[in-house]
Write a structure and sequence with these properties.
The complex is a heterotrimer of chains A (266), B (377) and C (295). With 266 residues, chain A is mainly α. Chain A has helices at 2-34, 52-55, 61-94, 100-112, 115-128, 135-159, 163-171, 176-205, 208-212, 220-230, 234-261. With 295 residues, chain C is mainly α. Classes of the chains: A mainly alpha (266), B alpha+beta (377), C mainly alpha (295). Chains in contact: A-B, A-C, B-C. Chains A and C meet through helix 1, helix 3, helix 4, helix 5 and helix 6 of A and helix 1, helix 2, helix 3, helix 4 and helix 6 of C.
Chain lengths: 266, 377, 295
């Protein structure tokens, strides 16, 4: 009887580890292939070890240009959608007003919409009102769907925050503005930062919505897609690996900081 | 800073009402809380005491009525403009600030001078000087509670509101804090308004108690007054325990009213009530009821015979449940001076008490009012 | 997650405060109306347009050509079907794979839970396209996986890439975290004492699971399946990179109609139909499975 339980537990454990390995597998491939010197143009199988891609990341200017375009768009999208999304979140969580349910539904609708539809409808809009496709249309498109994600993340943070804290602040002579500045905002900040990080990731990596609305502009994912048939240079893997490890590092650092500060019990 | 203000004033609640749709949480409440007193708002959950407190703090807006501090009408002032501070039930300490900064918060918003000195002094008062740089989560419940009090007190408000602040503490700590708070209040001289459902706590700490039920005040008075002379069944049942008898007035004898309860006669001083005929409810507290073997003489005037149903030795006293011949259960508490002769179940006894220990209640009151309260919180 | 009900002040003390929530949501709602709601209506309008000339370069004219819908559906219904089929299978597999690990994280792995969460979310920090493309390497003809499976003659076509299997495998991989996270969230909320109590009441452990854990995890299952199925059904990247011409999904069609062929009315008609089907599915699914906070 006990043996059966042990077997069951072990199986569960092993299975979970296997799933993690499964999720990590393509990441390992990406990083490994960045150290590869491909035989031809296709970088899909291992040939020989080389640091060439790492030392000459921008040999092909188009790659780095696409990268910088994605970074620029990412930063702008992050700033704008984080601000807009945070404002909505505050309204939803901290205020009771007529139409709150409708706001909520409207904000979460983009999350339920497949990217093709989002991309397609925005393309239809831009075509019909004769806005030229390019940097700005990408921006507009990406902000549209990242707002919902920001709201979700900030909501989670705010909802876990004791409303009595703000009442206590006002009881202690803080005006609503001061309450926001000294209490609400600092406590919500980790959530806002998480939302910003998420926003940036979504923007940088977005392909479908961006493709529909990019015109001639090449973002990093668009470059990859274009290169997929011909062969993706290992420099792309280098950049992707750096982005990946960088994000991971950020998350680890952030969680260490929050462990130290031990912010609100959520 | 605060010493520049005029002396502490009385707090007046005038016809205060708070309704949510059809439900009246606070129903036309009028109250004057004397300056410098320790005032308790006592009642079961849902009676409106916390809502009343929040209206005084400015955290809820009254549907109608006024709140005045002395001559000043503060009804429409936001909380940050009132010289009123609150100690919240869950303490509501700012988790991202140190204890020092929590306590200093109010002073900083007022741009006071000598903040450092005041904070240090206050931390000493509540004995938390060594914890000043820690965060609230690192402190124990009792310590957090003291920070909450310190944070409010340091602003020298006219009124300090306490919303069941001792609820989360264990019994021993609670008793300790009750005395602490009482001591602080006496020293500092600020008006304390303490909301609680624990009648022992209210009676221990408060100078004046207002017993609330369903948005209204049932009775207002000192602990002794409302305990010894409850005016409604609710108050009688809510504070301590009571034996209640339904009867009819049979006549007058001298300066006592004669009341017939089933086939027994009880007497109660005329001065206690205006009722001279008809139905009446008589009450007496168990500790006033003597319990002796049947057949004894020289007993107080009000007597019933019955048999013991239950004996409970509680240490300080022995509590008896006695069944009368008409099936009513009466409680009698006997102080344990010499616990050698405890009664046993089944034993035939006589219960007796002095007429002056009886009180009279409104005959239309529901006999079960005030009984649902939980005492184990 | 549910939205907290308390607000700072239950009724505003001054008129000014009443306006705050509306001011706060104004930019966001305005934006969403302009760039989400309104475009959907333009999409609809576009779906009814008719060609201005014989080539796509001539553009389109506003019209009421409802025929666009029937034409599109008749021609592309296989891809619709295939899209839902592949993503349906992928969703089911995701559920089967995700549940055990979510269970493990929620009830067993106290210490490693946070690490596992980071690892599960980690793939999102690497490019979606590269991740999918990496499967080309892993599943390639001369790779270990194919070699291993071939020695048991398990592969009908002697390869994985460029088959429907690869597409479904890709979809499963990409959307697995979307299934794990809501499941985990839902399971984590279950009070472990309930399971102990169930242990008292039900004797085989499987009963314990089906009678207690599973019902309580349903909200997570609903969230997870919707978050997996919906994006997966519209995906075209997996089909493009890992599948053959015969594996095109509805997403591929919409993409090629819009970008390559520039047949906007057809593309719009397909998009709109697709969205309508999704909405109906969501509605029915939620109705049947019970509503709950989805997010």
């Amino acid at each position: 009887m006990f043996i059966i339980k042990l077997i069951r537990e072990k199986t569960l454990q092993v299975f979970s580890v296997l799933i993690i390995v499964y999720l990590m597998l393509p990441l390992a491939v990406i990083i490994l292939l960045s150290f590869n010197k491909p035989k031809g143009r296709q970088n899909t199988s291992w040939n020989e070890f080389s640091l060439d891609a790492w030392t000459n990341i921008c040999r092909d200017q188009t790659i780095c240009r696409a990268f910088s375009t994605s970074i620029q768009i990412g930063l702008l999208v992050t700033i704008i959608s984080t601000i807009i999304g945070t404002m909505i979140s505050f309204a939803l969580i901290r205020h009771r007003y007529r139409g709150r349910g409708t706001t909520s539904s409207l904000v979460f609708l983009p999350l339920a919409t497949p990217e093709v539809i989002l991309g397609a409808s925005l393309l239809a809009l831009f075509l019909n009102i004769f806005i030229p496709l390019g940097f700005w249309t990408i921006l507009l498109a990406q902000i549209t769907f990242t707002i919902s994600f920001v709201v979700v993340v900030v909501n989670a943070r705010l909802a876990g925050m004791d409303p009595k804290l703000e009442q206590a602040a006002m009881d202690l002579y803080a005006t609503p503005l001061q309450t926001f500045r000294y209490i609400t905002f600092p406590i919500a900040l980790p959530g806002i930062l998480a939302a910003a990080l998420l926003s940036f990731s979504l923007s940088f990596d977005d392909f479908i919505v961006t493709t529909f609305n990019s015109g001639r502009i090449v973002t990093f994912p668009i470059y990859i897609w274009g290169a997929a048939q011909r062969g993706i240079p290992p420099q792309v893997n280098v950049i992707a690996s750096l982005m990946f490890l960088g994000s991971l590092l950020l998350v680890l650092v952030a969680s260490l900081i929050s462990k130290n500060r031990r912010a609100t019990k959520v | 800073m605060a010493s520049n203000r005029p002396k502490v004033e009385d707090l007046h609640l005038v016809n205060l009402t708070k309704s949510f749709d059809d439900f009246k949480a606070v129903d036309n409440l009028s109250l004057t809380i004397p300056a410098g007193s320790f005032f308790a708002l006592l009642g079961p959950s849902g009676c409106g005491k916390t809502t009343t407190l929040r209206m005084v703090a400015g955290l809820d807006e009254p549907t109608s009525g006024q709140i005045k501090l002395g001559p000043d009408d503060i009804t429409n002032l936001p909380p940050y403009k009132r010289w009123v501070n609150t100690v919240f039930q869950s303490y509501a300490l700012f988790p991202h600030l140190t204890i020092y900064e929590n306590v200093a918060f109010g002073l900083r918003r007022q741009k006071a001078e000598n903040i450092d000195d005041q904070v240090k002094a206050m931390l000493e008062l509540v004995e938390l000087t060594t914890q000043a740089q820690k965060k609230p989560q690192q402190l124990s419940g009792g310590q957090q509670q003291r920070v909450a009090v310190a944070r409010a007190l340091i602003n020298e408000p006219d009124v300090l509101l306490l919303d069941e602040p001792l609820g989360a503490l264990d019994l021993k700590l609670r008793r300790q804090m009750q005395l602490e708070l009482k001591r602080i209040q006496t020293e500092v001289g600020i008006t304390f308004v303490h909301v609680t459902h624990d009648q022992e706590e209210a009676m221990t700490m408060a100078d004046t108690i207002a017993v609330m039920n369903e948005g209204k005040i049932e009775q207002l008075g000192s602990p002794v007054q409302i305990y010894e002379h409850p005016k409604t069944v609710f108050v009688a049942n809510f504070l301590g325990q009571t034996n209640l008898f339904e009867g009819t007035v049979a006549g007058i004898e001298g300066d006592e009213l004669v009341v017939k309860v089933k086939d027994t006669t009880f007497y109660v001083p005329l001065a206690t009530t205006d009722i001279r005929s008809g139905r009446i409810i008589l009450g007496v507290r168990p500790e006033k009821v003597k319990i002796v073997d049947q057949g004894k003489t020289g007993l107080p005037k009000n007597q019933i015979n019955g048999s013991i149903k239950l004996t409970a030795f509680v240490g300080v006293s022995t509590q008896y449940e006695v069944i009368t011949n008409w099936g009513q259960e009466i409680s009698a508490f006997e102080q344990n001076v010499d616990p050698t002769d405890l009664g046993r179940p089944g034993q035939a006894v006589t219960l007796a008490w002095e007429p002056r220990h009886s009180f009279v209640l409104n005959p239309d009151d529901d006999l079960s009012a005030g009984l649902d309260t939980s005492w184990d919180e | 997650m549910s939205i907290a009900q308390e607000s700072i002040i239950t009724k505003p003390t001054r008129r000014r405060i009443k306006r705050t929530p509306y001011l706060l949501i104004l930019p966001g709602i305005g934006w969403l109306f302009l760039f989400f709601i309104f475009p959907l209506s333009t999409l609809f309008a576009t779906s009814l347009q008719k060609p201005a000339g014989l080539s796509p370069d001539d553009g389109f004219l506003p019209a009421f050509k409802v025929l666009n819908y029937s034409n599109a559906l008749v021609e592309y219904y296989p891809q619709f079907f295939r899209g839902f089929l592949y993503s349906g299978i992928a969703t089911v597999i995701c559920l089967l794979l995700a549940y055990p690990i979510a269970y493990y994280m929620a009830f067993r792995a106290r210490k490693y839970r946070n690490l596992m969460l980071v690892l599960i979310v980690a793939p999102f920090f690497a490019s979606f396209l590269l991740r999918t493309n990496a499967w080309k390497t892993i599943l390639s003809g001369d790779g270990i996986v194919v070699g291993f499976l071939n020695s048991f003659n398990l592969l009908p076509q002697d390869r994985i890439l460029n088959t429907s299997l690869a597409v479904v495998a890709g979809l499963t991989y990409n959307f697995l975290p979307f299934m794990i996270l809501p499941l985990y969230t839902s399971l984590e909320k279950i009070d472990p004492r309930l399971i102990e109590a169930a242990g008292d009441l039900y004797s085989p452990p499987s009963q314990r699971f089906w009678k207690v854990v599973w019902p309580l995890s349903i909200p997570g299952v609903i969230s997870g399946t919707l978050l997996t199925f919906i994006p997966a059904s519209g995906d075209y990247i997996n089909a493009e990179l890992l599948g053959s011409i015969k594996d095109k999904m509805i997403g591929n069609v919409i993409q090629s109609q819009f970008i390559d062929l520039r047949d906007y009315p057809t593309a719009s008609a397909l998009s709109f139909t697709f969205m309508a089907i999704i909405l109906v599915m969501i509605y029915l699914y939620i109705r049947r499975a019970g509503t709950d906070d989805l997010v």
